[in-house]
Amino acid sequence: MEKVAFILKTTAHPTRIAIVQLLAQQEGLSVTDISEKLHVEQSLLSHHLTGMKLKGILSSTREGKSIFYSLKMREVVDVIQCLASCTFL
Prior knowledge:
With 89 residues, the protein is an alpha+beta fold.
């Protein structure tokens, strides 16, 4: 239960949930790619990405000037999907 609580606390924002859902479909997206797909400003997006990376939810790789993000903790997707399937939401 502690891991679930950690996941819920770390992803408790609509933008963070959208990032997780997007990266579950497409691994290795740059900040620019994610920003365009989610229609979120890069500065705000970078804040969310950095926080989730520091908490171990995401991983990143640098290629030149670009940073590409992927899901590191795949269980996050399961928790979000489980909540999304609740009938009361």
